[in-house]
Amino acid sequence: MAVKGCVFVSAIGLSLSPLRAAEPIEQQGYYLDWVPYHQLTVEQRKSTKGMCQGLYVHPDIIAQPNHEITARKASYEADGQVILEGDVKADTANGFLTAEQATVSADRTQISASGHVVVRQSSGLIYGQSGILNNNTKTFDLKKAEYLIFQNNARGVAQRMHRTDEGLVIIDNGSYTSCTPGDNSWQLVGSEIELDHESGFGTARHARLELADVPVFYWPYLRFPIDDRRHTGLLMPAFSVGGEGVEEYKQSLYLNLAPNYDATLTPHWYQERGTHLGTEWRYLLPENHYGMITYDFLESDPLYENKKRELFAYEAKGYLADNWIYRIDYAHASDDDYFHAFEANFDDANTEALDQLAETQYRQGNWHYIARLQGFQELDSDLADADREYYKLPELQANYASGNAALSYGSRNQAVWFERDIHDGSGYTGSVNPNTGEISWGSDLTAQRTHLEPYLSYRADALWGYSQLDLRGGYSQYALEGQPDDISDRQQRFTTTFALDSGLLFERDMDAFGKGYIQTLEPRVKLVYAPTEDQHDIPLFDTSEYDFDRNQLFRDTRFSGIDRQGDLQKLALGITSRFIDDTSGREVLNLSLGQAFYAQERTVTLSADPQSELDYQHTRLVSPLVAAVSYYPLDWLTLDVSTQWNTDNTLFFLEKRESKIVGNHPSGVSFLLRHTKSYTDCSLNFSCAEGSGESYEETADLGLIAPLSTNWRAFGVIRRDIEQGRHLERIAGVEYESCCWSVRLARHQYYKGDDYDDPGAFDNSVRIELLLKGFGGIGQGEPYKRAAGFIPGFRAGY
Q1: What span, in angstroms and rounded, lies between the C-alpha atoms of 315 and 311?
Q2: Start-to-end CA span in the chain (Å)
Q3: Residue 163, by phi and psi: left (phi above 0), alpha (psi -120 to 50) or beta?
Q4: Most exposed among 66, 68, 239, 624, judged by the fewest C-beta atoms under 10 Å?
Q5: Cβ contacts of residue 634 below 8 Å, gap of 6+?
Q6: Residue 212: is its pLDDT beyond 60?
Q7: Bridge partners, residue 363, by sequence
């Protein structure tokens, strides 16, 4: 029986909740859901960043309570089949199908379609000449197909494309690419490509990689990721090109051993050194235990007297119980020059020390307990063992804190045992100079330090300002061993610190340049009193003195550790004014000024000589005058200037200045320009050696990226020591980015270490990185990671 006209077929035995396009994109004339750029909305155009000639816009999917099929004509066959012709639309449990003709099986579980077949599912879209959909097995089989996968916008063509009972999508004699329709900048072509969305992997047999339709590589068998999950397999290689060709080549193998642990093996070939092997193992155990073990080695380095060079590192953290955590951060290198030889970026190559730390922390009520073992491997070949840092073996803390928003009190308490090993014969015996009393502590000195520091703080806040009173006392006791004969093995000290900090807040409305602003005026005053007590007979273990800067202006201590305390009587004055846009609430301008005045010279220093001559920073009674300006004229532009002037010996003599301009323009131009200059003490008190001129340090940093066209960008970084007249680091590169691939080329020059006269310390290499989006990439990314630290908005990776 045949029925003409628009017909409706329902209750045909289809099952499960269907997905249906509210208005199929293909009916709007957009093939593969690809909407040309000129038809996009303003917001959609922004998302393309101008690099793509359009955008995939998928229609909304609406769940239908009942399955249905419509067609212009339907014929009901004797065997139960239904033959549909003309504008066939089928809403099934296996997706939404349109075709010119279709046949519904007698048991209503399968549809065979032909003529401009389109199958839309929640995961993708397929066009074909003919095909079969099975609603029970959720399988399909289409001939001469073209497909789009929504998850990663990968597309391709196939002589045949089918989905198996196991959920595998098989592409026979087909292609795979992330490029937009009509663009075959790159594609993977294979006799069979298998996409396993369950595992997140694709495999290809007899596969070739084509760039601009030109074959460039062949694999008999290739396995590649199709999502962001971790998979066992070769990672993309990295290499470095220099004046003598390929200087380095690195190929990593990732092993996904189990859901909770994995490993990476990285052979790294160096033209002049041989093959260096890097290994990394990571684990994640129940109860939030995470760890990573690294072991890298080169069995014999011809550039290092054929010695074995190696690095071991272990990081771990986790919970032992509620409120009880632990952390391990341990690393050891075979030699002080290891990172100079094997690290390919400025920061890592100039690593100065490696942490060797194990600690656990426990919180119970108001108490916070810490137990720590801590040491360092200082990577300085000129440093003797007798001059290296002390280990803390162990450090125990029991800290108490209580109170409320207004009143808080507690005590910071610790006991530390300091040890040091001498292996290079640099040990020496301590002594006391009979004439000056200067103490040379000797290399055999060890100690146990106990420190108790109760404190009390009261703060009152109001709409117009605040006041805060801080009181604390610090009692320290040292039990020494191996000290000079004339020094007692027991040293102790008690200091107190009083600090009163107050600030006011005034606001007013004002108009300037035709706009309304809220201006604030925020004066601040802080009084600090910590009496002076001679401490030259207390050894230094983990203490240094702060350099003066904006942060130091309102600190109530001069030292970063416990071995020196007190000796600070100052009055610090400051004022800040902010200008806030009355309409947007955005801060446009921030002005601040501050200075500290000292009641006396600071005689407590890091020196062990009671008669040592104080330098200028300790004798001056007026701190530098600190001024800072932050100006935000536009949403994308910031100007910062911080200056310290000397008003003690002369009127407004520059001590230190840092100027910084940061821009991140919507056009794609981003930049950072930073300049710093600071004078040494001899310039400030006019005591520099005759003929030496002013003594100062001056550096400048510039980072810039600018579009050359829609897809091309140039970028560069320059770090220069102006006073010495030399570059510290330079990066110059270009990058091209399209919708589906990008390439970067950069020259990276920098010094490893601080010996600028050593030609071997200068690294000069060319790095290239090619990324095929949705497939992988090759090349080394170190210059790009480095550039990201100096160029606002620059991406180290895609």
Answers
A1: 13
A2: 59
A3: beta
A4: 66
A5: none
A6: yes
A7: 368
